[in-house]
Amino acid sequence: MAENNKTISVAGNTGPRVRSDCEIKLEIRTSGGINTDLTSKVKRLYGDSIIDQCNEILKFFGIDNAVLKINDSGALPFVIAARLESAIKQLIRTDLEFLPEFLKENFYSTTPYRFRFSRLYLPGNNPAMMINAGLHSAHGIILDLEDSVAPEKKDEARILVRNALRQISFYGAERMVRINQGQRGLEDLDYVIPHNVNLILIPKCESPEDVKKTDKRISEIKQKCKLTNRVFLMPIIESALGVENSFVISGSSENVVAIAIGLEDFTADIGVPRTAEGSESLYARTRLVNAAKAAGIQPIDSVFSDVSDMDALKICVQKSKSLGFEGMGCIHPRQIPVIHQGFAPEPDEIERSKRIILAYEEAARKGLGVVALGSKMIDPPVVARAQKTIKLAIKLGLLSGSWMADPQTEQI
Question: Which terminus of the chain has fewer Cβ atoms in its 10 Å neighbourhood, N or C?
Fold first, then answer.
C-alpha cells in the first residue's frame, strides 16, 4: 500500500437537491484510531450500520487511523461503499476492490438480435437515477461514464458504476455502459467487464481501430477473469469522418451488433445547428442506416433532447423508423413508452411474424432441418426476430398471448 501526496480526500455529492447519495471526507492519520462524524436524516435508524460498514471497508484497505466525515442523503450501502473506496484511492495506491454482493437476478445474457428500441442514458455519477431505472421497461439501460460525468468525477463514477452493476436490478433490460474515449475508455473496461456487462457503447468512434482496441481489451479482461459471457459492442458515430467510415466500423468485429449516431456532436463537427426537422443530418443518418443494414446489424438513432414535448418526439420516432432505424436513445423515462409505440411492429409485420413462427413450429413437428414459408427458406435470425416481434406485440397489447390457440390462426 503506497501513499499519494494528498492527505485529505473528498468523494460523492451533497447539497439540497442531492438524494440517494453521500459526501465522504477522509483524512488518514498515523494514530488515534477511527473517528467518524455522521450527518444523516436516518442516523437514528441506520447510523450504527453505516458506521459499521465504513469501519469494515477501512479495515479491508488496511486503514487503522483516520478521521471520516459522512454527509448522508439517503445513500444505499453500495453507494456508501463506492464513495468511501473512491476517497481511499485518492490517498493510497492499491489494486484492492471492495465488491458488494452480486445480485443473482443480474446474471443474465443477451443476444445479437434482440430489440433495442429504447436505451435509457443514466449519468454514471448519479445513484438516484440508477436505483429504479429498470422499472421503466427500457430495452437497455446505459450507465454513462462519458459526457454526463464531470472530468474530476470520472474516477469516482467508475467505482459507482461497478457497484451498481452488481447491486441494482435491471429487470431484464440489456446492461449497457458507455465508456470514455481513447485510453481512459480502455481503462474503464477494467471496472465494468468483470461484472456481467451485456453491451459496451464506444463514443465518438471514427475508425475500425477504435472498435478493435476495445474488443481486444475486453478479450484480455475476460481471459484474465476466466469469463465466458459474450460482450456486444455499439459504436457511436459522432463526426463526419465516423459517418464516412460507418460501413467498415459496422463490420469491424463480430461483436458489433448495432451502430448509433450522436447528432449533437455530429452537427457541431460539421458546423451547423441541430434542427427539429433534421435536414442537416439526413445524409449522415441515411448513410449510417445503409451501412448497418449492409453489415447485418441494427442502426440506432440519436436521442431526442426535448423531454417535455411528447408530440414532437412521436413525430421524430416516425421519421426515424421511416429511415430504417430500429431504435433511439432516451434521456428521460417518460420518453420510453412513446418510443416503444413508435417502433412497435405494424399489423402486417405481426401477421408475417405469425406465419414464420407457425412455419417454424410445423417444421419442428416434422423434424425438418429447414424452415420454409411458401417457397422461401427462412434463416434462424429471421425466426428469432419473428419470435421477438410476437413477444413485443404481446407485451404491448397488440396481440393476445394465446394467439396460437385462436381458430383464426389456422387460416394464416
Answer: N
Residues 109 and 196 in one domain: yes
Q: pTM to 2 decimals?
A: 0.88
Give the integer Cα–Cα distance in Å for 5 and 357: 65
In angstroms and rounded to an integer, the radius of gyration of the C-alpha atoms of the chain is: 24
DSSP string, 128-143: HHHTTGGGG--SEEEE
Answer with the one of 73, 93, 113 that is the final residue of a domain. Answer: 93
**Residue 99 in grid coordinates:** 465488491
Residue 196 neighbours by CB distance under 10 Å: 18
Element counts in the chain: helices (H) and strands (E): 14, 16
pLDDT per residue over 358-374, tens digit each? 888 888 888 776 777 77
pLDDT tens column, 22-81: 999 999 999 999 999 999 999 999 999 999 999 999 999 999 999 999 999 999 999 999
Verify that 267 and 383 share a domain, yes or no: no
Same domain for 303 and 212 = yes
Number of separate domains in the chain: 3
- Paired strand residues for 345: none
